[in-house]
Amino acid sequence: MSDPALHHPVLCCPTVEAIRACVAPWRQAGERIALVPTMGALHEGHLSLVRQARRQAERVVVSIFVNPIQFAPNEDFSSYPRQLQSDLDLLATFGIDAVFTPDAGVMYPAGFATSISMAGPAAAGLEDASRPVFFNGVATVVAKLLIQVAPDLAIFGEKDFQQLAVLKQLVLDLDLPVMVQSGPTMREADGLAMSSRNVYLSAAERALAPGLSRAMQAVKTGLAAGGTAQALIRTAETELEQAGFRIDYLVLRDATTLGEWHGHSEGRLLVAAWLGKTRLIDNIAIAPVDPDGQIKE
Ligand code: PAF
What we know:
six-stranded parallel β-sheet; alpha/beta; binds pantoate; globular; Rossmann fold; 9 strands
């Protein structure tokens, strides 16, 4: 059976040769190229990154690849939503210049033997604590995507805040000639951060899920009112647990280093919690505190 993606109005490049041939004339013409790396199952969060890319570059490439090496064996690689046809239909409405759609055989051909091993923000004790293979898998695939497409600009969502910090470190450490940009988290009307994994939630869990962003907002508001982080976080944890969440972490960190937050720099409140079989992550900015202890808004 022929691949329906090959007959789509959006230009699909399933191989490294094809994407390189596609971007070469753009590069030669001096056009600015942006890449939005994704694992597909596109939602408004991805689309806002695509719009951001459109505003800043003459050419926009979206990659769609569910990267097997960033999932541990007990994680959701096989059930991760895959909907290439509707993703392509959606991207066609955005005038995307090309979609890079490699399969696992293209990315990791037989004999593939390289892995990028990340420390620094990848070892902050957040996602890495419960997802041991995640950041090396992400770093390896993103390094490959950046080398394959060679964009001027690559855009990632702030919802995966630790991933963003890890990828900035990767690009810095490997001298990759690309600017990393981030786009803000998109939320449903009730505050739930958009995620391809939200489809796993049952109706009852979906009704509870916005509790996560409400709990974070309560910590933020409490800090602005002069409360102490430790007490506010403990209250939020108790409320989340009573509502049925199982918390992996709810912590306040320095927004740049992801190390300890001392109050006078930009902070970030980060959370990961389970509702049933679904693991949700989210984060919000926390403004620095004045020397007299007041949050600077
Ligand atoms: O955030 C994601 O969707 C993925 O981790 C990424 C960056 C596309 C790498 O597979």
